[in-house]
Amino acid sequence: MPLPNGFRWGVGASGFQTEGALDADGRGRSTWDVFCAEPGRIAGGDSPAVAADFYHRYATDIALVRDLGVDLYRFSVAWPRVQPSGSGAVNAKGLDFYDRVVDEMCAAGLRPVPTLYHWDTPLPIEEDGGWLNRDTAFRFAEYAAIVGERLADRAEMWIPLNEPSVLTFLGYATGEYAPGKRLLFDSLPTAHHQLLAHGLAVRALRAAGATGIGTANAHAPTWPGSDSEADRGAAEFYDVLANWLWSDPILRGRYPDEDLATVMPGPVADDLEIIATPLDWYGVNYYSPFRVSAASGEEIPFVPTEIDGPKTGLGGEINPAGLGEILRAFPKRYGDALPPLYVSENGTSLSTVEEPDADDRVRDQGRIDYLDAHIAAMREAIEDGVDVRGYLHWSPTDNFEWTFGYAQRFGLVHVDYRTQKRTPKDSYHWFRELIKASR
Ligand code: PNW
User: Fold this and answer.
1) What pLDDT, on the 0 to 100 scale, is given for residue 59?
2) What is the pLDDT of residue 87?
3) What strands lie across the sheet with 222-224, from one edge to the other?
4) pLDDT digit string, tens, across residues 322-353
5) Whose CA is closest to 204, among 289, 313, 117?
6) CB under 8 Å to 325, separation ≥6 — which residues?
7) Calculated CA dihedral for residues 48, 50, 56, 59, nearest 10 degrees
8) Ligand 1: nearest atom to the Cα of 402
9) Domain spans of the chain, in order of start
10) Which of 12, 130, 164, 427 is the most exposed place for a label (fewest CB within 10 A)?
């Protein structure tokens, strides 16, 4: 069965991972600038200072994405470029950069999909408590209005916050990502404040004339490490924390359980009304299933299950069926309250070396296999009636993979970080043919 008419293909990337130019044109510092400068945080001591140099080479990358034949280009606007102090005065040069990027995309026939926040918090905001501080949600909404007013005439779809769950877990619970706090369950207020920021930003964007407003959350089915009652209990708990804590407030206007609702700060019932402001679409970012087992006598009651079988470069499980399962879970859980779905991120890094060979070919068959299987799983879900309207590949070019640095490559296009030369990989050509065939 062919994909539904009008099915949309795209790519996605983020500012901090691609732009470099961290001191350019009055940009303020972010939590990730500081975090990366701490010894031992980033594999190989890699620096985000230049990354894929998107700040200067955006026209090249936009042309490569145009030639791929997709129509959506997801990118992120860096809050510290637009408001270096996180509130108040706008840095015109920072905002102008995104204006140029959006113009370039439109001129190439691509539809811009801005993400407003992909984890790069302005440092002064973090110094005031970051997402532990309720005020951050209101400051974020002000920033959203500024970007909305500037880009609403040309942006096709909007993502206020990318994967707030990952920021809460890795940024505030375990401290593996910036801002590096290890608060365990005391990190939960950052969930509520990010959800509130999402809702306030949806309203601010609409007031600025923006349409096509959605979100992009990390989701995956949660499977227990064994059939034991303890493991099943751990998986059920993890499922609530990793999935439904983030989507129930948005799609149902409530927290998935009462205990969670009671630990959230502020006028939670009133906030939930804002958080549940209807969306035009909902984005699922999927890479690997969640597998957890019970942990006893630990601070956290679950541990990731050892996996066997094929793994991604990051060590995650390759399991395309997981994408189908999580996509089917959404209409089951939300029924008519569910807006159209998008796969807003899917892709992989490889455990094999990816470098251009003597003929300048990058033979990334592992990525082709991953994409082929995941796109097939998505198609099956669509055939079963799940309303999925588009698929965005993460990512157009190789980029800075957070604490893993440059060793983990997610691009369809290889970046030589010494020369900034771009080389489309085998997967780029494969994806282009797939898109062509699907039209
Ligand atoms: C996403 N998980 O992160 C991010 O949005 C991207 O910036 C990143 O480059 C990409 O995935 C690849 O890693 C995730 O634990 C981090 O489920 C963690 C999870 C999912 C996505």
Assistant:
1) 98
2) 96
3) 222-224, 290-294, 302-304
4) 999 999 999 999 999 999 999 999 999 999 99
5) 117
6) 221, 289
7) -70
8) 9
9) 8-438
10) 130
Amino acid occupying residue 233 = G
Cα angle value 355/288/131 (rounded, 5°)? 100
pLDDT per residue as tens digits for the range 38-47: 999 999 999 9
Predicted confidence (pLDDT) per residue in 78-105, tens digit: 999 999 999 999 999 999 999 999 999 9
Q: Is the dihedral of CA 161, 163, 167, 173 positive or negative?
A: positive
Pocket test for ligand 1, best of 394, 398, 406 (most atoms within 8 A of CB): 394
Q: Angle 266-125-36 (CA atoms, 0-180°, nearest 5)?
A: 125
Distance from the CA of 408 to the center of ligand 1, in angstroms?
12
- Taking Cα atoms as reference points, which of 323, 76, 114 lies closest to residue 218? 323
Angstrom distance (rounded) from CA 183 to CA 264:
15
First to last CA, the chain: 13
Closest CA to 320 of 235, 427, 221: 221
Helices 92-107 and 54-68 meet at what angle, rounded to 10? Answer: 20
Q: Does 394 sit in the ligand 1 pocket, CB within 6 Å?
A: yes
- Tell me how far the alpha carbon of residue 1 lies from the centroid of ligand 1, in angstroms: 31
What architecture (CATH level 2) is domain 8-438?
Alpha-Beta Barrel (3.20)
- C-alpha 177/C-alpha 180 separation (Å) is 5
Pairing of strands 421-424, 413-416: antiparallel
Q: What is the pLDDT of residues 186-216, one digit of tens each?
A: 999 999 999 999 999 999 999 999 999 999 9
Structural tokens at position 194: 């990010």
Grouping H, G, I as helix, E, B as strand and the rest as coil, residue 436 is helix
Q: Is 195 in contact with 164 (CB distance < 8 Å)? A: yes
Amino acid identity of 91?
N
Q: Which residue has the tokens 């408001």?
A: 83
**Residue ranges of the chain whose pLDDT lies below 50:** none
